[in-house]
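In this section we walk through a basic example: taking a raw amino acid sequence and producing a predicted 3D structure, encoded as discrete structure tokens. The instruction is simple. Fold the sequence below.
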Amino acid sequence: MQMKTREFLKLAALSAAALALAACGKKEEAPAPAAEPASAPASVAAAPKAEPLKIAFAYVGPVGDGGWTFAHDNARKALEKEFGDKIQTSFVEKVPEGADAERVFRDMAAQGNKLIFGTTFGYMEPMLKVATDTPDVKFEHATGYKQADNMRTYDSRTYEGAYLAGIVAGKMSKTGTVGVVGSVPIPEVLRNINSFTLGAQTMNPKIKVKVVWVNEWFDPPKETEAAQSLINGGADVLMQNTDSSAVLQTAEKNGKYAFGWDSDMTAYGPKAHLASATINWAPYYIHAVKEALDGSWKAGAGAHQWWGVKEGSIDLVSIAEVVPQDAKDAVEKAKAGLKDGSFAIWKGPIVDQGGKVLVKQGETADDKFLSGVNFYVKGVEGKVPSSK
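The resulting token sequence is shown next.
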């Protein structure tokens, strides 16, 4: 039994050793490689953002003139608000009319501006020249009459604002004499003086209108001298076709009345201010830029837009409390008629200083006639100076 037991233990030991050897000789299997994650689909490339339309403005006066240029710059700001990052605007102020304007327009085009606005009559020839040389740029000229394939003109019916102011002036004048400070004797300005006179005559048919010319659009010292001269000559209500607030301020110092022009000038002479004949260029500028963006912008011969009360471009605002209600009512009635087309300012009979009938009874002057006004109507004193 002892022998069997020893043999059994020996066999068990040999078996254990064999198993141990077998275990030591077995290769260790490498773990299965982890599955590679599925590759993410390539992202779709975002479409490149369209470059903004670059728009430039040339101003004849400073943006702070409180009148003409101030009105244009307010409209430029309205464009930025309307179109956001679709456009990029810039401006150059105090650009003289003439050769220097041509240099500015060329520089604007060289800087990549594709729509350029020139905001005064004297820019017409320089802009036309640059437009011919840069056919890929769109040009817009204010108050002019010459067009090209890439240049069109636009204007505001400022004479409507002048007529509305005339209604108030005719009612408010105690001396029966009112005055106008004129800039340069071109049809635009003569049309405004005559319309102011026609408006005043609705309240006082015997009203007299005196005019002093300064031959500048913006020259506060000259405007001041002209206004003082009119007051010294008996005028107790003043209007202007110049760009600064000097006329209103002069009236304030002299205890007389006056109007703001192009922009609301109430703050410059609150005691003298009767109302302001304002221009809102924003409706037209928004219209023009929209066309440039959507590809519908067109120029060429006859491409001219002339907007007024009807289009929301002209108004008489901030009428003073001192103005009698019947004058205010007359202003509102004229506005409503201009807006719906039931009233025309230049409806006959209209005669010049010498009594010559210019517009016959029952007839209405068309835009061609209005664009060529070179005379004074009956009631305006003095002679029309040469514009040359």
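Looking at the output, two observations stand out. The first strand starts at residue 53 and ends at 58. Residues 2-25 form the longest helix (24 residues). In the next section we compare this with other chains.
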